[in-house]
Amino acid sequence: MPDEQKLDDSDRFNLMLALTGLLVQGEEYEIKDLVKHFGVSKSEIIKAVKMISFTDLMNFNDFGHYLVDYDDLEDGYVSIRYDFSNAVDEVPRLSSRQASALAAGLVYLSSLPGLVDNSEIEELQNILASGDSRGAAPEMIIKPGSRDADLAKIREAISKNVAITCDYLNQRGITTLGRLIEPLRIDPHGETIYLRGWCPESLEVKSFRVDRMRNTHSTEIPISKEAREAELSDDIYSPAESDTIVTIEVDPEAYSLIFDFKPVEEPESLSSFRKRFKIKVGDVRNMGRIIARFGGAARVIAPESARQAVREFALSAIGQGSLKSPKNVE
Amino acid sequence: MTTNSSNEYKVGKPERLFSLTCALLYTSRGLTKAEILRSVRGYDTEYVEGGDNASLERKFERDKESLRHNGIQLETRIPAHEDENNQATVYLIKRESFYWPKDVKFTPRQLALLNLAAEAWAGGSLSTAASRGITKLRAMGSVGEDSDIVGIAPRIQAHEPSFRDLNNAVSDYQVVQFDYRNPQSGEIMTRTLQPWLLRQVAGQWLVMGFDELREDTRNFMLRRIVSKITPVKVGKESKTFAAPSPDLIAAAVADLDLLAERQTALVKVKPETEAWFRFQLDLTGGKKAGEVELHYHDIYVLAEQLREYANEIEVLGPESLANLIRTGFEKVANQHA
Lengths: 330, 337
What we know:
The complex is a heterodimer of chains A (330) and B (337).
Chain A: H1 9-23, E1 29-30, H2 31-38, H3 42-54, E2 66-68, H4 70-74, E3 77-78, E4 80-82, H5 96-111, H6 118-130, E5 140-141, H7 150-160, E6 162-169, E7 175-189, E8 192-199, E9 204-209, E10 213-222, H8 225-229, E11 244-250, H9 256-261, E12 268-269, E13 275-281, H10 287-292, E14 298-302, H11 304-317
Antiparallel strand pairs in A: 1-3, 2-4, 6-7, 6-10, 7-8, 8-9, 11-13, 11-14, 12-13
Helix pairs in contact in A: 1-3, 5-6
Chain B: H1 13-26, E1 31-32, H2 33-39, H3 54-69, E2 75-77, E3 90-92, H4 95-98, H5 108-119, H6 127-138, H7 163-172, E4 176-181, E5 188-201, E6 204-211, E7 216-221, E8 230-231, E9 233-234, E10 237-238, H8 246-262, E11 264-269, H9 274-280, E12 291-295, H10 299-307, E13 313-317, H11 319-335
Antiparallel strand pairs in B: 1-3, 2-3, 4-5, 4-8, 5-6, 6-7, 9-10, 11-12, 11-13
Helix pairs in contact in B: 5-6, 10-11
């Protein structure tokens, strides 16, 4: 079910158009079903229905109303009749922006392995283009970087509510063979696809990178009660109390860091395009790899331990460092 | 059955837009601006017969824009007998441009996919447009049927501040200007572009279009744009461009793909390291064990990706790539000295 969203004026107008298009077909609906279907609150549905009923064309016509029974509305039911011709009596088309956003989302889905057939996407794209008021949806092409055949097996295990086993290379460069994971949700994030899964050993939800999995197999072990009831946050990484606060400065080339790491407060603009922000980091040694890859577009300002980690990673990479290997860097 | 007409009730914008839409759909001959302001709910109470209605007229102008943003096409006509009399311009909405062309319905599975497509934008640059679009589409699906696809929460990543403005410019055929940093020299130049298409390649957003200065097709990486996106104006009007032909766009897309096909780097990867896991996926036929050939669009982006695995790989070629990786690390080491 979609989350209930906060609406502004344009959203409300849009909802009125959609609701009118649905309700004038003559059926009666329970408001709670509409709440679920449209993903907006009960009060927004009722407000929209009332505003529709206030509309009149009395100045153009002797009648001209959408008729709503307010007693039914009180009881949680809604239907609309109308008494004039040329009313809004179907669902209106999409705007180009609406169509293009959905079309782009579909292209993105089609690029995720094993989720959907291209023919299905094509059919939907064609319908969308026919409902774009301008005639054709502008193009947008999206492809996530990594693909993996294991993804299809994981999705199947999720739909069957069973655990998987796989060989997993962890952040310390150690491969665990036959690791048992109770898979909950696949979270594609940019280039990287994560599996959010319950770890029956540590008894907590963990994020696994699908590109570090090998030999994935479904088992017949059903998902545990703990796993089913586990809460999945939207954040891949959840900060802990013991984390160090690190201050980072970025140019636009490294803005992605701001979104990957959820700054603890609003980033500060240093110039028209340079930003500074603070993030929480579990182990400052990780900063070497995270920052050095940008080749100068991202800089650690403080603390010194994090600056040192970046310096050593960079020096070691060009053969001048004191670190033997970056493998213990997470 | 009751209808409601309350006199003290303040008509808000959503309701005014809805009434305006109904009136313009209802009319077959069209309505003049004066008729609209005098009789459509939301304007009528503020209209002064024969008086100054300037602020109301401005409101109407803004409302026209709001309707347009929602995909509603307003038609304007000057009745034949009125010649050039602008006061006589009438507005209307044609039913054929307002509704879907045929009786489109969505299956629960289709609606589920569209829901997921909209959710992929959650919190992102196009979340508003996607959520308004899906609201309309939901009205065309069956209420009460389960339409969720479980087990996946896709997110489109488009964090670049310029993304939304560029996407709108693509939709509106709007010529734009922005400052762009050359990745090689670091030099910043103002570029003027007819944006055709946004495209994500290897995790990076590009805007593809016609560069008015270079008079040729060009790609710009959004992360290298270091200014706001400014619409180019001609006098007071926005400068627009003619829709590019689909063939022209397809050719530009193919061109960029061909570039990636031609440009390859050869990298030796230490077995069983993270890089080994990572690049095995992109393996396109290595020459020897442990060697992978990587195709790339942009050498700077590839250098960045490879820097992450610095101690697990060795770049065998091209030399320019190995140099880029190295100078990047030197810069980082100096910055953090």
